[in-house]
């Protein structure tokens, strides 16, 4: 089985990104802390601590992650990814394009906006040519610590030469 040649990718560097300071907080601008008193399956009373986003949309979804299938008539389908420094893990992450849903914005509109902001796909050049094929059910990335719901969106987009 032959693989198509992929374009050369430059190594990603975190450049000047580094942690200057870290300190405990009780409350943040974007994230709060909650203590949950609950009863488990065996009837025992328990306590849980979690982080909660303060900017959840009206639909209850906090963010979108975008799987954009970039199609070209003579090249393999591509999936754009983002390399981004993430302070909580003090390292670079490989991610799908993603972002928070703005107030009054639908997941579909947010996904189109974030795809453009993070990859350059979108805007006037692609107006009407990027289709949201599906908004999946919500997913969570760390349900034991954070109440943060993400909608995975599937897109069909033309490949940019």
Structural commentary:
Strands 3, 4, 7, 8 and 10 form a 5-stranded mixed beta sheet that branches. A 3-stranded mixed beta sheet has the order 1-2-9, with no helix packed on it. Strands 5-6 form a two-stranded antiparallel ribbon. A hairpin with a 4-residue loop joins strand 5 (82-86) and strand 6 (91-95). It has a domain at 55-158: Nucleoside Triphosphate Pyrophosphohydrolase. It has 161 residues and is mostly beta strands. The protein is 8% helix and 42% strand. Residues 59-161 form the Nudix hydrolase domain. Keywords: Hydrolase. This is ADP-ribose pyrophosphatase. One of its GO terms (molecular function) is ADP-ribose diphosphatase activity.
- The level 1 CATH classification of one domain is Alpha Beta
CATH level-four homologous superfamily name of one domain: Nucleoside Triphosphate Pyrophosphohydrolase
Helical run tally: 1
How would you state the average pLDDT, rounded? Answer: 80
User: Helicity, in percent?
Assistant: under 10%
List low-pLDDT spans.
1-6
Q: Give Rg in angstroms.
A: 19 Å
- What is the 3D form? globular
InterPro entries: Nudix_hydrolase, NUDIX_hydrolase-like_dom_sf, NUDIX_hydrolase_dom
Pfam families: NUDIX (PF00293)
Keywords: Hydrolase
GO molecular function, one term: ADP-ribose diphosphatase activity
Question: What is this structure, in a nutshell?
Answer:
With 161 residues, the protein is mainly beta.
């Amino acid at each position: 089985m032959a693989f198509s040649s992929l374009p050369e990718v430059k190594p990603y560097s975190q450049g000047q990104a580094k942690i200057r300071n870290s300190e405990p907080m009780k409350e943040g601008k974007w994230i709060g802390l909650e203590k949950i008193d609950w009863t488990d399956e065996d009837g025992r009373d328990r306590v849980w601590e979690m982080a909660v986003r303060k900017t959840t949309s009206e639909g209850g979804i906090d963010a979108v992650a975008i799987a954009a299938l970039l199609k070209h008539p003579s090249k393999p389908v591509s999936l754009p990814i983002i390399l981004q420094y993430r302070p909580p893990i003090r390292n670079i992450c490989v991610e799908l394009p993603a972002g928070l849903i703005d107030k009054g914005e639908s997941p579909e509109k947010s996904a189109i906006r974030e795809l453009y902001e993070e990859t350059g796909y979108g805007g006037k050049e692609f107006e009407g040519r990027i289709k949201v094929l599906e908004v999946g059910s919500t997913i969570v990335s760390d349900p034991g610590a954070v109440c943060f719901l993400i909608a995975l969106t599937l897109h069909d987009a033309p490949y940019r030469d």
